[in-house]
Amino acid sequence: MSEVNCIFCKIMRGELPSHRVCESERTVSFLDLFPAALGHTLIVTRDHYENIYEIPPEVLAEIATESHRVAGAQREALRPEGLGVYQLNGAPAGQTVFHYHMHLIPRMPGQGLELHGRKEASSEELSGIAAKIAAKLPST
Ligand code: AMP
Ligand code: ZN
Prior knowledge:
The chain is an alpha+beta fold. The protein has one domain (7-110, 117-135): 2-Layer Sandwich (HIT family, subunit A), CATH 3.30.428.10. Helix content is 29%, strand content 19%. The chain contains 3 helices and 5 strands; from the N terminus they run H-E-E-E-H-E-E-H. Strands 1-2-3-5-4 form a 5-stranded antiparallel β-sheet. The structure holds adenosine monophosphate and zinc ion. Adenosine monophosphate binds at residues 7, 16, 18, 32-34, 88, 94-97, 116. Zinc ion (ZN) binds at residues 3, 6, 8-9, 48, 99.
């Protein structure tokens, strides 16, 4: 997948909308458009790396730091009883967008373990949740 047609590169360039939770030098965190659960957030590299084999280790370290920050804010904002942290590499593993990203999926008992939602969330719903999570971020 070339960077020109990549959905997440388009979001990074501002050609597609997203509901951002926070940003760091080399990452942007925004809500999944087809959430598997309320608050489903993606931690995404600004630059295009297809998978774990391409991402440089120092960028991966920043993904980990941001995941940790956003996880804490999700916990404060949404009080989930569990949190799934997932990252898929290659179509056989279920990857559908070939631009590196980490999923943070809040889990409640009895909701199942789907990684991908089927229904597109409304812009109003997503902007409300993004603001709620962002309000609980620790200052850097
Ligand atoms: P993966 O299967 O790990 O590659 O996950 C890709 C994720 O990106 C899926 O959970 C999709 O719902 C999500 N997604 C696809 N298009 C968009 C978009 N325009 N904005 C936000 N999330 C998206
Ligand atoms: Zn990309």
